[in-house]
Design goal:
Layout (H helix, E strand, L loop, with lengths): L3 E11 L8 E17 L5 E7 L11 H6 L9 E7 L10 H16 L8 H16 L7 H6 L2 E4 L4 E4 L5 E6 L5 H16 L5 H28 L2 H9 L5 H6 L6 H10 L4 E4 L6 E5 L2 H14 L6 E6 L6 E3 L2 H8 L8
Parallel strand pairs: 3-4
Antiparallel strand pairs: 1-2, 1-11, 2-4, 2-5, 5-6, 7-9, 7-10, 8-9
Helix pairs in contact: 2-3, 6-7, 9-10
């Protein structure tokens, strides 16, 4: 058993457009790295240092709580954690999940416990950690980030989906508070409920949203399993009863223009990643992904916009040997580290 382990926790896309808190999939090349090391100086799990291109984002975050919840059993030795913050917070790409996942992967590997602990137990501990920092208790980022692939998710049930391969283009045009973005959904429905419309009309509107969620999610999963990205994309991009888009699009700079640019460039779908403000588009090969990225960036604020092109990551979190090698090997696939 080693005394020191380093792990990568990847970024992820949650919601997958309109599917609120119930779906997520894993990205590659971008994320956080956590190094854990045994110590006899104490008998707890402690964050001793943080670094990385987005370390400054952590000033107002409860990082120790996020990482310490990866493992909370009593030990006869201590564990020191070092965090390399490779992705921005408030991006809609599962930033808090990535650091928690990296810590969990490293700690469980260090203790040689991963194969002896249930999926549900690992997910619950990570969910507790992410909740401490993001006030979000659904595992739609942490589950795909840890295990890779795409998942259908609830608080008590997670199911991997065996889907076709695809490429994701992500464009981040500004930052937005995850808490405020989640509140925008509450405000959207509060406004609907408190409106002067007849009660029966308000009920029918809410039922329309429910029908949309049910039918669209079933169609999307069916088409992804069948390898039909085009029809799956229609479900993801649908706007009429996508309450997440209706409630959040005005908070994301140039959202509709960027979405339209992606679709005109041949993307099968384009929507909001997580709670935003990242915008993601899907296609079936790398060359198309590059053209879609360029079209989206032509509309975005070119000097500030960040982008990522990634295949679906079916492996999830992983142990790495050298942080510099990991950094240099992944930077060509995005500009988050420029």
């Amino acid at each position: 058993m080693k005394d020191k382990i380093m792990a990568f926790g990847p970024a992820s896309v949650a919601n997958i457009g309109p599917f609120y808190d119930v779906m997520g999939y894993c990205l590659d090349y971008l994320g956080d790295v956590v190094t854990v090391e045994k110590t006899n100086d104490h008998k707890s799990v402690e964050l001793i240092e943080s670094d990385g291109p987005y370390n400054i984002d952590l000033l107002n975050e409860n990082v120790p709580a996020n990482l310490n919840c990866a493992y909370d059993q009593e030990l006869d030795f201590g564990i020191n954690l070092s965090l390399y913050k490779g992705m921005p917070t408030q991006s809609g790409l599962g930033s808090s999940a990535a650091s928690c996942v990296a810590a969990a992967k490293a700690v469980y590997t260090l203790l040689d416990l991963e194969s002896n602990v249930s999926t549900t137990e690992i997910a619950n501990k990570m969910m507790k950690g992410e909740g401490a920092i993001a006030n979000h208790y659904y595992p739609d980022n942490i589950v795909p980030s840890y295990w890779g692939g795409m998942y259908i998710i609830s608080r008590s049930w997670i199911q991997p989906v065996d889907i076709c391969d695809f490429y994701t283009v992500v464009v981040l045009n500004n930052k937005a508070s995850t808490l405020l973005q989640r509140e925008s959904v509450d405000n959207f429905f509060e406004k609907l409920i408190e409106s002067d419309e007849d009660v029966s009309k308000k009920v029918e509107q809410i039922l329309h949203f429910m029908r949309f969620q049910g039918s669209c999610s079933a169609r999307m999963i069916y088409n992804l399993v069948q390898g039909d990205l085009e029809n799956a994309g229609i479900c993801i991009s649908e706007s009429d009863y996508n309450f997440l888009e209706l409630s959040r699009k005005d908070t994301i700079h140039k959202y509709e223009s960027i979405k339209n640019a992606a679709l005109r460039a041949g993307a099968y779908s384009c929507s909001i990643s997580g709670s935003g403000p990242s915008i993601f588009a899907l296609t079936n090969n790398l060359e198309k992904a590059k053209r879609i990225r360029d079209s989206m960036l032509n509309v975005a604020d070119k000097t500030n916009a960040k982008w990522l092109i990634s295949p679906i990551n079916k492996k999830g979190a992983k142990i790495i040997e050298d942080q510099d090698e990991w950094f240099n090997g992944n930077r060509q696939f995005h500009n988050f580290w420029e």
